[in-house]
Sequence to fold (937 residues):
Amino acid sequence: MKIETHMNWRYVCRLDELPVLGARVIERSDEEGGNVAVFRNDQDVVFALLDKCPHKGGPLSQGIVFGERVACPLHNWTIELKSGEAVAPDVGCTKRFPVKVESANVFIDLTAHA
Amino acid sequence: MSKPKLAVIGNGMAGIRTIEELLKLAPDKYEITVFGAEPHPNYNRILLSPVLAGEQTLKDIVLNDWDWYKDNGINLITGKKIVDIHRTKRELKAETGEIYSYDRLLVATGSNPFILPIPGANLPGVISYRDIADTEAMIDAAKAYKKAIVIGGGLLGLEAANGLKLRGMDVTVVHVMPWLMERQLDERAGKLLQASLEAKGIEFKMQANTEALIAGESGRVAAIKFKSGEQIPAELVVMAVGIRPNTELAAKSGLAVSQRPGGILVNDTMQTLTDPRIYSVGECVNHRGIAYGLVAPLFEMAKVCANHLAEYGIGRYVGSVTSTKLKVTGVDLFSAGNFQGDADTEDITLSDPIGGVYKRLVIKGNKLVGACLYGDTVDGSWYFKLLREGKDIAEIRDQLMFGESNIGDVGHEGNTRAASMKDTDEVCGCNGVCKGVITKAIKEKGLFTLDEVKKHTKAASSCGSCTGLVEQILMFTAGGDYSATPKMKPMCGCTDHTHQEARDTIQANKLLSVPDVMKFLNWRTPNGCSSCRPALNYYLLSAWPKDYIDDPQSRVINERAHANIQKDGTFSVIPRMWGGETTADELRRIANAVDKYKIPTVKVTGGQRIDLLGVRKEDLPSVWKDIGMPSGHAYAKALRTVKTCVGSEWCRFGTQDSTQMGKDLERAFWRMYAPHKVKFAVSGCPRNCAEAGIKDVGVIGVDSGWELYVAGNGGIKTEVAQFFVKVKTSEEVLEYTGAFMQLYREEGWYLERTVHYVSRVGLDYVKKKVLDDAANRKALWERLQFALDGEPDPWFEFDKARVDTRQFIPIKPIAPAEAIPAE
Ligand code: SRM
Ligand SMILES: Cc1cc2nc3c(=O)[nH]c(=O)nc-3n(C[C@H](O)[C@H](O)[C@H](O)COP(=O)(O)OP(=O)(O)OC[C@H]3O[C@@H](n4cnc5c(N)ncnc54)[C@H](O)[C@@H]3O)c2cc1C
Ligand code: SF4
Ligand code: FES
Fold:
């Protein structure tokens, strides 16, 4: 593993422990930076975002997932899972974390700024 | 591989709108080149009138600036007229001789002003009113000259006259017909309009036939001469006597063109009849015999055309209903549909000559087919909506004339005059959007439809009660609400299919999953969006109650977690209290749970039960278990509460046991999913302490039995329930309620409450299905009981209710070495 050696990978769960077109939450205190949402879409791509909508902090993990997007459960902003960017015309961005799936195991680096 | 080439002739409103729609669907499909005869980027032609009147500047009305073309990789060639299309070689020739090739072509050449074939029509000082150059010529003329004549008393002519007058000229409007705007107004309104324009200082010469324009010594126009022989001096003459589709290029290139009323012949996919590689949209086309002269139809055409250019192959343009509003500040007039009426129609009129108000509504059967309003057009957009949607107005006919604010619109009455609002006045209370923000967005982003305003400003996107107001602001700012004819309105951006089409398809083809429906109907997106997926999930559930497997990921969080999400991400728990009754034991268990889980707020709801607010998600299953009461479904599009009063058991006025009736209803209908939430109430006598008059089904006990009321609504816009039927026994209450509910479940669109469903189909229809047809009533009630039989309580039967309990367990990440064999 070349460039990845400096990464701080942590094991999250097995891929099939994440609901398809859904998400689960990694709980962290506010001091640790707050909860992280780990999403899985129907192509088994996994994404991780800070569980805070750029609008008013809604928990994105609770939204409806479609394509590579999630709709925030509070006021229905749409957020790109890949980039954390709100879809126009809304403007804002939420922090994202590197994730990888290896032999159906999901890993995250909570220390890195993706 | 290089991309196919799409060429657009005409850099105007219809052509560019088509490109905008195309870019949304297939941004990289074509190499696009746009040719425009005018030396400007695309601008809002409608707003030339406010520019002429000095209310806006040319800079304000640009819709797509130069950068827009650059950013979207569009090759824009302005100031260049295309003079030939070589269809077999697929080449275009410009006036200046260059040749361009294309794979597909879009002709959007708009229309030309009609010039009266009279002597002197081409003298200097005689102009038409179509583009920026004309507008600038008028503005310049107003600086140098005094006497203006406008030939034509239609929309364009009057807007020109008004602008020239405001710029200081003496203006006379010459019109051949006996009254103004005869194609949009009846005689009374036309005369009122003339009077108010006269009050602004504009003069009129009616029923006047122009014979010639006479040159002065300088060679510039100096006078207008009528057939009567009379002459009046004129230093500027504006001809605004109509437009003709600009088909010169098309005809020359062998495309079929209609002689009358003119226009390039196109089919429902906006392809020219002659050459399927060539599309055409805008004022230059003739669709099913009609050549339109307003923008709303052009936008609908653009959408369809873009869909076919993107090769999605769905969507047809089937024609439009249009409305007219004159953009002269201070003059309120509106007309739409068949405002003149005919042998089969009836009129409702209101006329107040002193107050300067005249309204005429034209009705055919139970539908509004035309409206002509003068002096008070606040309800124009509402009438237009009733008209386009073909709403059944039988129930509101007697109040129709008094406008929307009179139809039970509590709290919104009075100050709905968008025009008189200040920029800082709040329009949308839900999202805190004020008028200034909306007008700014409309102008800066070039918005035309209600949907666009919703998207960009969030106004009218939550509870929707300010929709009418936003439509009015649109009307004043962009000249109208150009929303597509709603009967063709698709479910969302993922599809062109309507709610009804999706429903019918599910039924007809026995589709059994959300992905199957999307595949069958060619959804554009891989798994829909947060708006269509919950709708499809409900349609499947209501169509195939025992066969469809509910998809929790297609439900919004409240229905997935079976609790209401709060603004801080915690949840609320509202257990069911049958008919609003509780016991010491239940209260004790609730109290214990509140202590144990440190629940911050306990509140009695507006629906006669208790709400525990601020419960952490991971505590939900334990809280449900500890309180041991059934789910109140306060989070679901399902039966919520059944409110009751004490009734005959205690109350000295009670005639019926309303509490028992309420409990029976609640036990019979709980766990019932529906298009939207459903609320019942039962009162023991007509004093109606349970407020049954504003519920989806309200039951009122009377001495001889029960009265049933349906389709009330207490929420955003309070609507009083309508009397439905009187029955004798409580069994009948259940049966009639059940039949009505099942009809709504089977036919209501997702997020349509009973009040909106009933106003869409008409109460008479519901009565026919439920009251007049006893067999059908019983069948409906049986289907509902079949659907409800064995429905699980989601707070206790997780598997059966398909509750994914993993959601209640947070994940703790660990170092890989501890979890799995080292890599
Ligand atoms: C809790 C409660 C307020 C209270 O503290 O009393 C309440 C709370 C909410 N109401 Fe309500 N409504 C409550 C009774 C009502 C009532 C009164 C009633 O039921 O008798 C009405 C008017 C009656 C009616 O529905 O016609 C009412 C009309 C609405 C509306 C407007 C619905 C409409 O069609 O006009 C909404 C918005 C919506 O549904 O889109 C709404 C939406 C909401 C939501 C769900 C807003 C949201 O999306 O988060 C609130 C959820 C808070 C929560 O998490 O618990 N609530 N809401 C009441 C719960 C009643 C219950 O026991 O289930
Ligand atoms: C003053 C005024 C007020 C109006 N008010 C309203 C209103 O209140 N409400 C409403 O609904 N509608 C209104 N309209 C009508 C509305 O503006 C038109 O319906 C709309 O602009 C038509 O769009 P289009 O793309 O078909 O044509 P256009 O916008 O005219 O675009 C056609 C373009 O093609 C160019 N072109 C033509 N031939 C060639 C060629 N051979 N080569 C290259 N380029 C070519 C033209 O120069 C023009 O720029 C108004 C119009 C005017 C003039
Ligand atoms: S409970 Fe109802 S009325 Fe109160 S703030 Fe929430 S939605 Fe509005
Ligand atoms: S908090 Fe996410 S949309 Fe408002």
Observations:
- Chain B touches chain A at residues 455-456, 462, 525-530, 533-534, 553-554, 556-557, 560-561, 565, 567, 569, 804, 806-807, 809-816, 818-820, 823 (CB under 8 Å).
- Confidence is low (pLDDT under 50) at residues 407-416 of chain B.
- The longest helix of chain B spans residues 730-747.
- The longest strand of chain B covers residues 357-364.
